[in-house]
Design brief:
With about 475 residues, the protein is of the alpha+beta class. Helix content is about 30%, strand content about 25%. It has 17 helices and 20 strands. The protein has helices spanning about 20-30, 100-105, 115-125, 135-140, 150-165, 170, 175-185, 205-215, 230, 270-280, 280-285, 290-295, 300-305, 315-320, 415-420, 430-440, 455-470, and strands at about 1-5, 10-15, 50-55, 60-70, 85, 190-195, 200, 220, 240-245, 255, 260-265, 325-330, 330-335, 340-345, 345, 355-360, 365-375, 385-395, 395-405, 415. A five-stranded mixed sheet has the order 2-1-5-3-4. Strands 10-11-16-12-13 form a five-stranded antiparallel sheet. Strands 6-7-9-8 form a four-stranded mixed sheet, covered by helices on one side. β8 (about 220), α9 (about 230) and β9 (about 240-245) form a beta-alpha-beta unit. The protein is globular.
Length: about 475
Amino acid sequence: MIQFLLNQELRSEHALDPNLTVLNYLREHVGKSGTKEGCASGDCGACTVVVGELQTDDDGREHIRYRSLNSCLTFVSSLHGKQLISVEDLKHKGELHSVQKAMVECHGSQCGFCTPGFVMSLFALQKNSDAPDQAKAHEALAGNLCRCTGYRPILAAAEQSCCAKQPDQFDAREAETIARLKAIAPTSIGELNSGDKRCLVPLTVADLADLYDAYPQARLLAGGTDLALEVTQFHRTLPVMIYVGNVAEMKRIEHFDDRIEIGAATALSDCYEALNAEYPDFGELLHRFASLQIRNQGTLGGNIGNASPIGDSPPLLIALGAQIVLCKGETRRTLALEDYFIDYRVTARQESEFIEKIIVPRATAEQRFRAYKVSKRLDDDISAVCAAFNLRVENGVITDARVAFGGMAAIPKRAAHCEAVLLGQPFDNAVTERACTALGEDFTPLSDFRASKEYRLLSAQNLLRKYFIELQTPHIETRVTAYV
């Protein structure tokens, strides 16, 4: 059985189909049809809902953290122990919520199909903002698309709702909601079981290891932003899943003198602060990693584990010399991330083995790390090419070189020939040009609808030239860049 709050109503579910999304649960099982399906792939934001989770700060204060997410990519099992809020829950005692009023007064709605999703993104923005912030508003709404109204009045509604922020019914009930969430906090393995399909929800790494050993055919579910597409887009059935989002040990970020250890189930939005503090270019790239709804769900371990050749984080992590810790039963092994990827969607992971955490070396003064993403759109788009450069330059000579790319091969991959040209050489224009030529030996990219093979190779070479220019003239640095 799993338990969660539907606004303030306790829901206990056991026999539901584990392949059921939160979107369809709301629409078909509880009659809340305000949440819409636009794309079933997390691109349009019409299905946006907000999930509240109990969180304890370092000072011991308990509060509810509200996050927007795409209900079309969220399986119901991930709600275990949480609070689900949909657009119907905002109106209170016959009065519109302040974010709804702002949308009305700023003329932010026309046909209305996308409006519930925008309202829920605004609600989450208001809950997480102390004052109007244009950058945060753009970030909060980047995952919501409107086909008729335009965005100016919606951004005006964001400003108004954050400017005139007033306590609402959720604030008034916070203590009550915290008490109810504590009362339903999971204490044992949860399960949804429809007879022919099941999803298990462990709470510890040990439980996860045991379950995965017992069900090696199970699909591991973290954020689900990739896995759920198999159900919503390809209409496949997932007979057995194991949801790892309630394993607290795999959601920790720990800092050590020489490294940062990030649990594989840590949401990308939670990774931002730690990675941005060490490597600002990593932070910049995370801002462009899909939408906020996706980053609130998608995990760093999932972005690695799905072994996509166009995943954004692996090239950066490879260039930084990151490692992963793989767990199978009581056995653990540490593997350089670059050795995890073998071929297209083929990895070094063994049966019943899972990524427990990612180890990222801390930055040093000698490092010159930069990352660049080339995509057709600035926001919420997949890379055509993702490049990461990490050189150590001492006394004008390159003493270490790590160059990695995504979108250039069947796997995220280091550019060995390029690195060999750079190593031991002065970092000047002539060496850079030789290294650019060597990229043609490292990669033979494919053509697809995102870019031609010629464009990809030329872009990779130009990004290396860009990196050289920025390091020579840091005042013109532009960091993670999109080419439209």
